[in-house]
Amino acid sequence: MSFNLVCLSIIIQHSSKYHIIRLDEKDSSFCTFYIFSAISFSQIIADHTVVDRYVDIPQQYIDEVKKMWLVYAGESHSAAIRTGLALLESINPKYQVNITESGTPESYTNSHLRASRATWGNLTSSTGWIYSYGEEDWFTSSTAINRTKAGITYCNTHSLEIAAMGFGWCWDTEINTTDEFNMYLNATDEYITHCC
Predict the structure, then answer these.
(1) Which residues of 46-69 are buried (b: 16+ CB within 10 A; e: fewer)?
(2) pLDDT for the residue 17
């Protein structure tokens, strides 16, 4: 694997179990289909070959997704996911989404998917809703990892259940070694363990 590819991880909760999905750059724009399929009882792999079948997603899955809050922290790749969700809604209003870009994230609803890149705290601030979150906040230090875990806990204890959390790691010339890539994967695994 080339380390200058985008690596995307999504943590998905289903039946009190958390699953991690890792994709490379080629597949990252299709993570929406993983989220839709993750609520089923068996694994469904959906990649670029089935994009035209999004209209075949059963209504019961769509209704379940409308109860969820997707937190997709990151920078440009995070923005692309939110843009993709908005574009999907624009071509088919059955896929309703509310994207929050600032302030307090929207509370529970069953009328649309809630999506944002909001995190409670980051490396430089232990509290408050943060909408600017990068590699330094996800995996580069124990402080970053502990604050991300604290943010997940904050959401859990304040009626803001995160249904899926992802981080889009954009290629960064300063963070581009095997050790750093492994730090990223290890931090992601720590978040999964924290959620279990």
Answers:
(1) beeeeeeebeebeeebeebbbbbb
(2) 43
